[in-house]
Design brief:
By secondary structure, the chain is an alpha+beta fold. The chain has helices spanning about 30-40, 55-60, 65-75, and strands at about 5, 25, 85-95, 95-105, 110-115. Helix content is about 25%, strand content about 25%. The strands form two sheets. A three-stranded antiparallel sheet has the order 3-4-5, with helices on one face. A two-stranded antiparallel sheet has the order 1-2.
Amino acid sequence: MKTLLLDTQVWDLCKDASGNIAVAREPYSYAQDAASAIKLFAGELYYNTTKGIPYFEQILGKFPSVALMTARFEGAALTVPGVVSAKCYISDISGRKVTGQVQVTDKMGNTSVAGF
């Protein structure tokens, strides 16, 4: 599965060596799409408002446990087509920012990692 490659520092599109919009390919594309799913707020995806994490209802301003956040993040990662397992690791919670990484295994057995 192909997806547009996102710069890991600013989570925005980036260019390839030829100046074209870069494309991420398998197996990394699965991890990047899983990280994007983790960043998606419930109701934010206009063509499918059932997807996303209920950040406003369960996380923001609520002091959730790491276990709850990890469970929500892994559940979101598993919504990516082709991902058969996901494991999230939260590396830092400071102020209003949570950072970590998601490790996914795809249907071919490949494992890849992306930060969130």
